[in-house]
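Last lecture ended with a question: if I hand you only a sequence, what can you say about the shape of the protein? Today we answer it with a concrete record. The protein is Cation diffusion facilitator family transporter. Below, first the input exactly as provided, then the predicted structure, then a couple of comments.
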Amino acid sequence: MNDRERYREAQKASIISLIVNIVLTGLKIMVGLAAGSAALVADGFHSASDLIGTLVVMQGIKIAHQPADESHPYGHYRAETITSKILAIILILTAMGLGYEGLQVLRSPELSPPEMLALYIALFSVIAKEGIYQYNIRIGKRIKSSAIIADAWHARSDAFSSIAASIGIVGSILGYPIMDPLAAIFVAFLILKTGVSIYVDSIKTLMDTAPPKEILDMIETAALAAEGVEDVHDIKVRQYGSKYLIDIKICVNPYITVEEGHGAAARAKLSIMNEVDDVQDVLIHVNPCYSRHKRD
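The predicted structure:
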């Protein structure tokens, strides 16, 4: 999949999420306030954070797919990782605010059960948000977009929070009004957990954490398949947004010409880029294999 198709898929997923989040945010907050449900209001603000997050994702993806320039010779792909980090911070701040509001309601001397309409909206939200999660996670994995995947998990956390809100509303209607603010606090915990998880993943990428061993093995196998390459060592891989930047050392016959050694490196690079998905560039250092060749 080329960058243009990838960008088109990412934008489509973001626009669908945006429309759903606008509708759900308005419904939850208005009905939650009218029906007297703290859990649904908390869930509504969670959807509002989804809305903000989707806007951030759309802008981040737009930047990430801009072509390389003099200031960014490797391109702008890391904008997706930065977007994921911003999204995580939005989630964490939202969780802290909602948890505080839930505690304030819990301390209130008068707790009254919400109206039945609040439950219907919460259940509708569960279905809508799970649908957004399933769609976005499929697209995110297919185009290898950390920002879309983060937005998908943001949607699922909203679905979970709507389930918690539904439980709180039902418990409150059945005569246990304390269940509603407790559900709001539980929602805040779920949001916080998701936010921290996304933040940690984005930090790992920004810190150039090595990819899974399977990727390293694929790179080694592809390089060794190139004619003239006798050994491979010191493979280093950085994840640059959705792309990989690879540094590798190959070993060749020490008695061939410089041009032949360069040819072996070129074949190794081509083999890696053909066999390993999403490789942005490969830098190859050529070393002589003296241990394997002795001059007569």
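Comments.
1. The chain has a mean pLDDT of 82.
2. The domain at 3-206 is CATH 1.20.1510.10 (Alpha-lytic protease prodomain-like).
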